[in-house]
Specification:
Shape of chain A: globular
Shape of chain B: globular
CATH architecture of the largest domain in chain A: 7 Propeller
Strand content of chain A: 25-35%
Number of helices of chain B: 19
Distance between the termini of chain A: 85 Å
Number of domains of chain A: 2
CATH superfamily of the largest domain in chain A: YVTN repeat-like/Quinoprotein amine dehydrogenase
Strand order of the largest sheet of chain A: 1-28-29-30-31
Order of helices and strands of chain B: HHHHHHHHHHHHHHEHHHHEH
CATH topology of the largest domain in chain A: Methylamine Dehydrogenase, Chain H
Number of domains of chain B: 2
CATH class of the largest domain in chain A: Mainly Beta
Oligomer: heterodimer
Largest sheet of chain A: 5 strands, mixed
Largest interface: A-B, 71 and 85 residues
Largest sheet of chain B: 2 strands, antiparallel
Radius of gyration of chain B: 25 Å
Chain lengths: 563, 430
């Protein structure tokens, strides 16, 4: 080992040279690192495989595959992005070598500079301490590591759970109209026909204690609905196997809860129209009532939190269901008239019920439930109310775009399919809207409209190729790309229940409890008719082999006999 | 000499590294169903080094490393060999095949008879262990490219406190247990996937891995061989083998004169000091501690096994079949609106979903069972460490710790008994 003598001129010069080299090499390495970091960022942003603009253009192309203009736009954008991508790629490629050289020279010269200053070892005081103390410290370290590893192991299930598990769905019918608020069942093995009077294919039917228009939400072996009158609001958990009520919980969120909301149509909208929404991962149920009470309960019926949002001034009664997205619970609280400026979209913290944000809405009372649309550029909340379809960013409630296309008292909720938003109302039209705009896109992003036989209450249904909608008995099928009506049929009945799809069947439930099952093809094909046995204004829920329907007084579990 | 070594390293890496550069695979643009992508051809493989050459070089390198470390006792020789190994096994062969990753191939071959394993991989796994049984950890000293990478950038080593080295020292056994578990169940080769230096060897890789590699290098400038000491699963096996080794590196070639010059020379904290004078006369406390640790041992094993079994459902997601089955369920439930390549391929295959679900369930069972054993292994290592720390052994002189000494040879340079250090002094060169 050669140690540098302090008075050695050559050693000093050597040290200075190696130190200088280390400084220069270090600066060079830092510079290359900065250039590479910048290039890496540009490279990531110009990757054509996940570029948002290209994704939006592809969505457009999916809707209109014949448009040569869109194809040209895609090609042009793709070429530009590729050029940038490979330009920065070359910089990164060269930079890697430069970085290796720079880092190598830095490490080598720094080591030389330090060794040039190294002095011979000088034994200090004899080693202190003893093995007892060293052993104790070692055991403490191992204990700390064991605790840290245990905590890490226990945290793994939480960290690895899917991000979307906080949202609705999970393959279960966990909110209004099921997964994606689409009305489409993930289960196809549900009965084609049944008879609630004769008990054919009826697993059980039970009386629901209090009235309500909320539809069932299903999780595992539990079915949740709500019921209410002027004074009492209740949440019911039914055992899916037997139909008996596992628990019922009364909700009174605060002093304002006792105030009876004006205008509620007791036999129509009822005091319990919003459908419960379930957070399956965190085992929570969120409910809302016409008096403005919102509550979160655990699966055993224990109230986690409850808040009173004020008594809604809604002339038919509040009906919009809450919607869950990540850690936010959204309430579309539209009330009064547009001039009253009372309406708002409210986001509550799903864990605590505390308000996260509130965005005022330029509309009056409305009844549709908002939906979360998984648009390529990011999730959006889509709301409907006379006269606007408005999209918001679910993270902060900022308005993204709006379309002026609705009129009258809005009941149908919007849907999202094949990259398009479909929104409708009885006095206006059904509009197919591209959700990639900014600001008022009424004139630019409405793909098509159709204005005959529009629904008053029932939400539309779409598989991405066709769109179905139910007006006062008139059931229409439109082409999703063009809006052209393919067929329509008058069932000569009144409908409030939204159409629901299971496999290649669409279930239509009339207000008198007659059930019509039609095919999902481009031609009308009626597959069967069934009877519920009592009036029904709610939408069905689906589970493995089962369908749950809430009638005026009973909750039905429909299942193929023998299963 | 170090400067020369650095130059060799850079020259070798720049000249030979380019040929092995990873090709970037870019998908064709999505221009709709009518667009026909042009046919692409696969270029011919220009060269391929037969595995026997790698094995031969490994044998030569191990022999040289053992000779230089034990016979010649030359730090410079060890360092030069270290640089050469880094250039060949690291930058030229791009870190593959290596004994560390071979653990997984061997584990998979043992637990899954259908899994293929090449003879070269087996040799790469066994040879360093065999050499260690004879000569100590000379593989770590000068042959392992990962160790060499950290060795050459170590500028100013800091001494870590005892409690921290003991705490971090548990990580290799956790890593080994997980690596064997995932490989045995066919889930993943985590050692290769998360090798911090592989991206540096290939001058290419995901940004995360490059940053991880760079971070390890920066830490390696001040903490001696952090990967080898606190992560490397193969290092754990070599450490155990080294405890039984026939010969190994010693600080002094002759009798230790207790001059204490070597006391702080080891950047890896592998030098144990004499303790004969500091051992307490009353051994009661030590005996009680030992009894306590013996009682704790079975509890540690059981608790560790239980914790690992609890995490098994999450760990099963490492297996592609389990992930695919879960993805299919989510897609069928319309929880996600898009598909993946794997899910698309599965649907096109026409295979029943139930069959996939059954396969995934079987894998989950295997992972759960394996997790229990992996947990028990981790608990056993913890228990043995605790017992070891509660046991007193008398040490008369300065010694290189059998398990943790990586035979780098730094301590030779400080020992006045070493003939290499005596000669210049005798010559009056100071």
């Amino acid at each position: 080992m050669a140690y540098a003598a302090p008075d050695n001129k050559w050693s000093a010069a050597w040290r200075q040279a190696t130190l200088g080299t280390a400084v220069v090499a270090g600066a060079f390495t830092l510079f290359v690192t900065i250039v590479m970091a910048r290039s890496w960022r540009i490279n990531a942003e110009s990757n054509p495989t996940n570029h948002p603009e290209l994704a939006a253009l592809r969505d457009k192309l999916a809707v209109d595959s014949t448009s040569g203009k869109i194809v040209d736009e895609i090609r042009e954008k793709d070429l530009l992005l590729r050029r940038e991508f490979f330009r920065t790629w070359r910089i990164l490629d060269t930079g890697a070598w430069l970085l290796l050289v720079g880092a190598g020279v830095f490490a080598g010269s720094a080591a030389l500079a330090i060794s040039a200053r190294k002095k011979p070892p000088m034994p200090a005081a004899p080693p202190g301490g003893d093995d007892l103390r060293a052993g104790l410290l070692g055991r403490m370290g191992i204990g700390a590591a064991a605790i840290a590893l245990t905590l890490a192991a226990l945290a793994i299930p939480i960290l690895t759970r899917e991000v979307s598990t906080r949202s609705q769905a999970k393959g279960l019918w966990s909110g209004f109209r099921g997964p994606g608020s689409s009305g489409i069942s993930p289960y196809t093995n549900v009965p084609l026909t049944f008879d609630g009077v004769e008990g054919v294919n009826i697993a059980w039917k039970v009386v629901v204690p209090l009235k309500g228009q909320s539809s069932p939400s299903v999780w595992d072996n539990r079915v949740f609905i709500t019921g209410a009158n002027k004074k009492t609001r209740e949440v019911y958990c039914f055992d899916a196997l037997s139909g008996r009520i596992t628990w019922r919980k009364s909700i009174t969120a605060g002093p304002g809860s006792t105030k009876v909301p004006k205008g509620v149509m007791e036999d129509d909208t009822t005091y319990a129209a919003p459908t419960p929404v379930i957070d399956t991962e965190n085992k929570r149920i969120y409910v809302m009532f016409a008096n403005g009470d919102v509550a979160c309960l655990d699966v055993f019926g224990k109230i986690v939190w409850q808040v009173h949002l004020g008594t809604p001034d809604n002339f038919y009664g509040h009906a919009a269901s809450p919607v869950l997205w990540k850690n936010s619970l959204f309430i579309q609280l539209d009330q009064g008239s547009a001039d009253d400026k009372l309406s708002a979209l409210i986001a509550l913290n799903a864990d605590t019920g505390k308000e996260l944000w509130r965005t005022p809405r330029p509309v009056g009372s409305s009844w549709p439930t908002p939906i979360i649309a998984p648009v390529a550029s990011g999730d959006q909340i889509i709301t409907c109310a006379n006269p606007f379809v408005i999209s918001y960013n679910p993270a902060d409630g900022k308005e993204l775009w709006r379309v002026d296309c609705l009129d009258g008292d809005g009941g149908p909720s919007p849907i999202y399919a094949a990259g398009m938003v479909f929104a409708t109302n009885v006095s206006s039209k059904i509009a197919a809207i591209r959700p990639d705009g900014k600001g008022d896109v009424t004139k630019t992003h409405v793909q098509w409209t159709f204005d005959e036989d529009l629904p008053d209450t029932c939400s539309p249904l779409s598989d991405g190729k066709l769109v179905w909608m139910m007006s006062e008995g008139e059931f229409s099928c439109l082409d999703a790309k063009t809006g052209k009506r393919l067929w329509h049929k008058d069932f000569e009945a009144s409908f409030y229940s939204s159409p629901a799809m299971a496999g290649d069947r669409i279930y239509l439930i009339s207000r008198k409890g007659k059930v019509y099952v039609v095919g999902t093809g481009r031609e009308l094909k009626e597959l069967s008719r069934a009877v519920l046995g009592e009036g029904c204004d709610t939408s069905p829920a689906f589970a493995e082999g089962r369908m749950y329907i809430r009638g005026k007084t009973h909750l039905y579990c429909i299942e193929e006999q023998g299963q | 000499m170090r400067f020369l070594g650095a130059c060799i390293l850079v020259l070798l890496s720049t000249t030979v590294g380019a040929s092995g550069k990873e090709a970037f695979k870019y998908p064709p643009p999505d221009l709709g169903p009518d667009y026909v992508a042009p046919h692409t051809s696969m270029p011919e493989i220009t060269h391929e080094i037969p595995p026997i050459v790698d094995v031969a070089i490994l044998v030569i390198a191990l022999t040289l490393a053992s000779y230089v470390a034990l016979k010649k006792r030359s730090r410079t020789g060890t360092w030069l060999l270290c640089v050469a190994s880094l250039a060949y096994f690291g930058f030229y062969r791009q870190g593959c095949v290596c004994p560390i990753g071979a653990i997984q191939s061997v584990a998979e071959a043992i637990f899954n008879p259908a899994a293929a394993i090449s003879l070269a991989v087996i040799v790469f796994f066994i040879l360093p262990l065999m050499f260690t049984l004879f000569f100590g950890r000379t593989f770590c000293a000068a042959v392992c490219p990962l160790g060499a990478m950290q060795e050459v950038v170590l500028i100013r080593p800091l001494r870590l406190p005892k409690w921290l080295t003991c705490a971090l020292g548990l990580l290799p056994c956790v890593y080994l247990a997980l690596a064997v578990l995932f490989a045995a169940t066919g889930s993943a080769y985590v050692i290769c996937r998360y090798d911090p230096f592989i991206a540096l060897f290939r001058l290419n890789g995901p940004a995360g891995m490059l940053i991880l590699g760079a971070s390890f290098l920066v830490i390696s400038m001040f903490v001696g061989r952090p990967y080898c000491r606190f992560l490397c699963p193969y290092g754990l096996l070599l450490g155990w083998a080294s405890k039984l080794s026939w010969k190994r590196v010693t600080i002094t070639p002759d009798e230790c004169i207790k001059c204490r010059l070597c006391e702080n020379s080891c950047p890896y904290g592998a030098i144990t000091t004499p303790n004969a004078d500091t051992l307490p006369d009353d051994r009661k406390i030590g005996a009680i501690t030992l009894v306590c640790m013996l009682v704790v041992a079975p509890l540690a094993i059981a608790a560790s096994a239980w914790i690992m079994v609890r995490t098994a459902p999450s760990m099963a997601k490492m297996h592609p079949t389990v992930r695919l089955a879960e993805r299919i369920v989510r897609e069928d439930a319309r929880e996600v609106s898009d598909t993946t390549d794997a899910s698309q391929a599965f649907r096109e295959s026409g295979r029943p979903t139930k069959e996939l679900a059954a396969e995934a369930a079987e894998i989950r069972d295997n992972v759960t069972q394996g997790s229990g054993w992996a947990g028990a292994f981790i608990g056993l290592v913890i228990a043995l460490r605790l017992i070891s720390l509660a046991t007193r052994r008398t040490r008369e002189d300065y010694q290189a710790d059998r398990a943790s000494c990586v035979a780098c040879g730094r301590c030779y340079e400080f020992c006045p008994v070493n003939p290499r250090n005596r000669a210049p002094q005798d010559g009056g060169d100071g």
